Amino acid sequence: MQWTVVIPLKPLERAKSRLAPAAGDGLRPALALAFAQDTVAATVACPSVRDVVVVTDDVRAGRELTALGAHVVPDAPGDGLNAALAHAALQVRSRRPEAPVAALNADLPALRPRELARVLDAAAPFPRAFLPDAAGIGTTLLTAGSGTELDPQFGGPSRARHRDSGAVELDDLDDLGYAGSVRQDVDTGDDLRAALALGVGPHTAAAAAGLLIPD
Questions:
Q1: What's residue 176's pLDDT?
Q2: Cα 66 from Cα 52, distance rounded (Å)
Q3: Burial class (CB in 10 A: 0-12, 13-18, 19+), 7
Q4: Per-residue pLDDT tens digits for 169-215
Q5: Beta-carbon neighbour count of residue 134 at 10 Å?
Q6: 9-23, 51-65, 160-174: which range is least confident on average?
Q7: Is the dihedral of CA 208, 54, 68, 40 positive or negative?
Q8: In sequence order, what are the beta bridge partners of 143?
Q9: Which residue from 3, 60, 83, 205 lies 20 to 30 Å from 151 (Cα-Cα)?
Q10: What is the 3-state secondary structure (H, E, C) of 151-196?
Q11: CA distances to 16, 141, 172, 208 from 31, in Å
């Protein structure tokens, strides 16, 4: 199965606000862009991905992510993360009604294409499926197969909301040893340390070079 992956990204000046204590407001937008660049680059390189759609109104991010192979669409609803994802999914299916669609966080700087492929392949048998984040509270990936509405419930304790909405939780992938990079999103300094330990992509490595993250 070949997926269209939809990735939402806030305007960089507002993105990753919880990283400010670790990185400061001067570096935070650059880190947010670097996370998105490494996420998009890995997703474009994933063998189970047909194409990548980024939803953002940030001009600089749109330019940089287009250069990596993403198709950028504006956040026309302007009504938050889930509205942006639903809008992008509708855009995709207006062109290809039967397309399987996956929503993926933009802050997965350690993402590995083969790990993403294995997670997407594990999701393929189910109408809707999701992967919880490393903290076990949120969600990093939500999938909807052909003919199924995405119905995103991201934000805060979204793991419970996605489960309650009927999506199947892909909860045994870490036991198989291949979901770590797909689960490790970055909101805080601790998250960034964990991602760096996994091994981040080149954009994040460059943006975080020399950064001292306080304990």
A1: 52
A2: 10
A3: buried
A4: 997 676 656 689 999 999 988 999 999 999 999 999 999 886 755 55
A5: 20
A6: 9-23
A7: positive
A8: 102, 129
A9: 60
A10: CCCCCCCHHHHHHHCCCEECCCCHHHCCCHHHHCCCCCHHHHHHHH
A11: 8, 21, 30, 7
Measured from the Cβ of residue 98, the count of other Cβ atoms closer than 10 Å reads: 8
The two structure tokens encoding residue 63: 């330019």
Q: Which helix (H) or strand (E) is 41 found in, with range?
A: helix 20-44
The answer on pLDDT for 9 being more than 60 is: yes
DSSP character at residue 146: T
As a CATH number, domain 3-208 is: 3.90.550.10
What pTM does this model have?
A: 0.93
